[in-house]
Design a protein that fits this description.
This protein has about 500 residues and is α/β, with parallel strands linked by helices. Helix content is about 40%, strand content about 20%. It contains 16 helices and 15 strands. The chain binds adenosine-5'-diphosphate (ADP) and magnesium ion.
């Protein structure tokens, strides 16, 4: 099997901590039942409810593929929006000049400059900066959010070294704007926000042209730049990865949220009302919106009920980084309340939504010590709880259950897209290699998640995997967005 996972091998990191009594942060549970047996009914039921055996995964892959077809047939036909991106041409390698990428994802905002030198010189120079988005801007007004972005962009451009970056005379600086939320694209350089996801709820934006919002803010900051391509991070990843590998057909993001984009044959898109039905175009699946046949537990339901986008994006809520830690927290809380997971107390921090993050699960699962020292210290530092070895083991079991389900479901989604591509192109059947470009910190930094995803691919694709490569293409979405600005330059 030539399935290639090209992610870096990670070494566990062990932090240092001070142990002191923090009893004031506990709620005394007088009604807690003592349960010293090694079984825990909450955990056992949760594991059962999260189970995704191969036939179940096959159902999920088929249901995703059905919704892909439904979404390609008519607008709103299925859970997956299957958005037309207006990107028909992926980068060829001939692109030249100075271009920019702006990336508004979830946790961070990134800005990048790229000096492209054509086929021979490729990327001559590139510079980037990452800025975390203040929490209050995620739920503020569009003027505040875009004003912040424009201000950061202005200071980035002001720092530019003239010798390294050169803008051709008479040209404006052109931007590829990666806006990683569901957008109804109206042309390559305009689109309206369909809905916020990933905890964002910025007022005055839904139904508005996101490029116009950015343009207004840039103008207000005296910035003479123009957005030439509005893309999604999946499209950016696909375009950036294609720059160095022409077999890349799919771009998948597994970070705060999740999405996938792929190269589709125009003749397979009934809703595409264009004269030409030949050639290919990029489809942004918005697969995070898939919400059928998923193994939803009571914990998923409760988390969903408390989310700003209730009832929506259930697939995203099971497989992406923003939510895995929160699901684990909810399970642990119930284990605490119904059995004495952490003794007779329920730690206050365990009752705080999103206090336990996916990064923490990852750190705990990397613990190879006999007494699960790292697990103990993560629990102490994050949840302010002293956990004995039995409790630590149970916590790891909960993490593993959630991460296994997430990774396997993500794998089923990739299979659905691979099979859809194969249905239209028969490329794998004819011996052609197909590459899936992966990005996002969840995929990059969580080895167990990657492994579970790989297991699902092996189970569902078997021998067909011999022509498929899963490639970790770190941070290429910025390059991809800049390349698409070049491909769609007005000059
Ligand atoms: P975004 O999706 O916001 O563009 P990233 O791709 O950097 O940004 O993803 C950030 C998300 O990845 C975080 O919200 C977190 O859920 C997850 N993540 C970050 N670091 C780790 C880690 N070490 N292990 C597992 N997941 C992580
Ligand atoms: Mg991102």
């Amino acid at each position: 099997m030539s399935l290639m996972f090209t992610s870096p091998v990670l070494t566990p990191t062990i932090g240092s901590f001070t142990f002191s009594s923090r009893r004031s942060n506990y709620i005394v549970m007088s009604a807690v039942r003592s349960n010293s047996a090694s079984t825990c009914p909450v955990l056992t039921k949760f594991q059962k409810d999260c189970d995704t055996p191969t036939p179940y995964l096959r159902n999920v892959a088929n249901a995703i593929a059905d919704d892909m077809r439904a979404g390609l047939a008519v607008e709103g036909g299925g859970d997956l929006d299957m958005i037309l991106t207006y990107v028909d041409a992926l980068p060829s390698g001939n692109e030249e000049g100075l271009f920019y990428a702006l990336d508004l994802g979830g946790t961070n905002f990134r800005v990048r400059s790229v000096q492209l030198g054509g086929k021979k010189k490729r990327v001559i120079a590139t510079e980037s900066e990452q800025i975390s988005i203040p929490q209050k801007l995620m739920i503020g007004t569009s003027e505040e959010l875009f004003g912040f972005i424009a201000a950061k962009l202005a200071s980035f451009v002001a720092k530019e070294k003239p010798g390294r970056f050169q803008l051709e005379e008479g040209r404006k600086r052109e931007i590829g704007f990666t806006f990683s939320f569901p957008v109804k694209q109206t042309s390559i350089d305009s689109g309206t926000l369909i809905k916020w996801t990933k905890g964002f709820k910025v007022s005055g934006m839904e139904g508005k042209n996101v490029v116009a919002c950015l343009n207004e803010a840039m103008e207000a900051h005296g910035l003479d730049m123009r957005v030439s391509a509005l893309v999604n991070d999946g499209v950016g990843t696909l375009a950036g990865a294609r720059y160095s590998d022409e077999d890349v057909m799919i771009g998948v993001i597994l970070g705060t949220g999740t999405n996938a984009c792929y190269v589709e044959q125009k003749h397979a898109i009934p809703k595409l009302q264009s004269k030409s039905s030949s050639g290919t175009t990029i489809i942004n699946t918005e697969w995070g919106g898939f919400s059928k046949v998923l193994p939803q537990t009571i914990f998923d339901q409760e988390m969903d009920a408390n989310s700003p986008n209730r009832g929506e994006h259930l697939y995203e809520k099971m497989i992406s980084g923003m939510y895995l830690g929160e699901i684990v927290r909810r399970v642990l809380l119930q284990m605490c309340e119904t059995s004495d997971l952490f003794g007779q107390f329920v730690p206050v921090k365990l009752s705080t939504p999103f206090e336990l993050r996916t990064e923490h699960l990852c750190k705990m699962q990397e613990d190879t010590t006999d007494d699960l020292q790292t697990v103990g210290s993560v629990l102490y530092n994050i949840l302010e709880v002293e956990a004995n070895l039995n409790a630590r083991r149970r916590v790891v079991e909960v993490c593993d259950t959630v991460v296994k389900r997430g990774g396997r479901l993500a794998g089923a989604g990739i299979v659905a897209i691979l099979e859809k591509i194969e249905e239209e192109t028969k490329r794998m059947g004819s011996g052609k290699r197909t590459v899936v470009a992966m990005d996002g910190a969840l995929y990059e930094k969580y080895p167990q998640y990657r492994q579970y995803m790989q297991d699902a691919l092996v189970e569902l694709l078997g021998d067909k995997l011999s022509h498929i490569a899963i490639k970790h293409t770190k941070d290429v979405s910025g390059l991809g967005a800049a390349l698409l600005a070049a491909t769609n330059s007005i000059y």
